[in-house]
Specification:
The protein has 428 residues and is an alpha/beta fold. It is built from 16 helices and 15 strands. Helix content is 44%, strand content 16%.
Length: 428
């Protein structure tokens, strides 16, 4: 069989993406990292060290040093010596991979211990690991949606939620305007009054919206759902994907639930962002987790994270719950505020908030590409986001602060942005 016709189809679609400015293009390949001593020793910089540069990254085939401003490793734990040592020690004891899915021979003691720690961290009876947060979303939602289910989803929810709902084929699907609680309540009232075939409702939202850094009002969502749940035979289940929130948001890093002082029924999150490792997980009641272990194909038929990754994630969780973790969270908030204030001081549009995702809203595809390229020319790796990743008119540069950045790093980026404003006519 020949791929000639498929090749032509793929090439045509790629040309369309290129014409619309939506093609991501070749990936930048990180070849090495140069970290200062304080990063290597797992501590935060002193006031004197804050005047120097932080970690720098080198790309394959390029000897220029780059400042990474688009990493999800918000607490800087992916370079923490304790976390790396835990993973290295785990590989020595358990090898490099689990070798099987969980129900065959792939469950190792580090998996079980990490699940216990995650459940306790979130104040839930039980937890369950997935190979990734995307896999967790895709594995959890279809298992909870049946032919009498209404699914309600925020307009700006992550791609994983969108695809999981498509895969699930619910009886009804409603998308409410971003953070519009009046619309959420109105839709629930409509279905309660006129749709007796709907027996179960799932209301699902991002905790932190990854492209904007704003937070879902979980307290309001939970209150609205509790108000209406008696109108549905199987109640209303609230679910949040707080992959960007856990470890980076809230006084102790417990994410959007801590910030909103309210808990959803089922919480999904990741080990691959603030905790700096890999994998996803879900926390809930014991019956729900036991049910998912028996019915979720992305858990049953997919290898788990490695035992060494589980040990590394446990080490990250221990740091987060320590005094050092609180210091890293405080530093993250301070650096984020400094950068956000700098953006507004330069006249750029941003979306205010305490989360380290700090968007520079451009609202134009071509200008977004120009600014991303300008940053790259000046040694800054940042992500330009265009439609369909973000809605048309919301094009942006997404900056992400992490605790290993220095004050000098933050001020350097602001200085480059200031120069762009001066040189912008020449760039347009």
């Amino acid at each position: 069989m020949s791929l000639e016709k498929l090749n032509a189809y793929c090439a045509a679609r790629l040309e369309e993406l290129q014409a619309k400015g939506a093609r991501k293009g070749a990936e930048k390949v990180i070849a090495s990292i140069a970290a200062p001593d304080w990063v290597k020793h797992g501590r935060l910089p002193t006031a004197a060290e804050d005047k120097h540069i932080g970690a720098r990254y080198f790309l394959a085939g390029d000897d220029k040093a780059y400042l990474l401003m688009n990493s999800n490793s918000y607490l800087g734990l992916s370079l923490h010596p304790q976390v790396m040592a835990a993973e290295e020690e785990g590989a020595k004891h358990f090898g490099t991979g689990p070798g099987a899915v969980r129900f065959i021979a792939g469950t190792y003691q580090p998996h079980v211990e990490l699940e216990k720690r995650l459940a306790a961290f979130h104040g839930r009876p039980s937890a369950m690991l997935y190979s990734a947060a995307y896999a967790a979303i895709m594995g959890v939602l279809p298992a909870l949606i049946h032919e009498h289910t209404l699914v309600m989803s925020d307009q700006l929810n992550h791609n994983s939620i969108i695809n999981a709902i498509r895969l699930s084929h619910p009886a009804e699907k409603e998308i409410y305007q971003h953070l519009d609680m009046a619309a959420l309540e109105r839709i629930l009232g409509t279905y309660a009054a006129g749709k007796p075939e709907i027996k179960r409702v799932l209301v699902i939202t991002d905790g932190i919206f990854s492209m904007r850094g704003d937070a879902a009002p979980l307290d309001q969502i939970v209150a609205i759902c509790r108000k209406h749940e008696q109108n549905f035979a199987e109640g209303i289940i609230t679910i949040a994907d707080d992959s960007h929130g856990v470890g980076a948001f809230g006084a102790t890093g417990r994410g959007t639930e801590e910030y909103a002082q309210s808990k959803v029924d089922i919480l999904i999150a990741t080990l691959g962002k603030a905790l700096g490792v890999n994998g996803g997980y879900v926390v809930a009641s014991a019956p729900v987790i036991d049910y998912l272990r028996e019915t979720s194909p992305l858990y049953i038929y997919s290898n788990p994270i490695t035992p060494s990754e589980a040990l590394a994630a446990a080490a990250s969780l221990a740091i987060l719950q320590s005094e050092e973790g609180r210091e890293r969270l405080a530093r993250l908030r301070d650096l984020t505020a400094r950068f956000e204030n700098g953006l507004t001081g330069l006249g750029f549009e941003t979306i205010p908030g305490a989360h380290p995702v700090t968007p520079l809203v451009v609202r134009d595809t071509r200008k977004t590409a120009l600014l991303t390229a300008y940053l790259f020319q000046h040694g800054i790796l940042a992500t330009g986001l265009n439609y369909p990743v973000v809605p048309k008119g919301d094009e942006e540069i997404r900056f992400q602060i992490n605790a290993n950045h220095t004050i000098r790093d933050i001020d350097y980026v602001l200085g480059v942005l200031k120069n762009f404003l001066i040189e912008a006519p020449a760039c347009s």
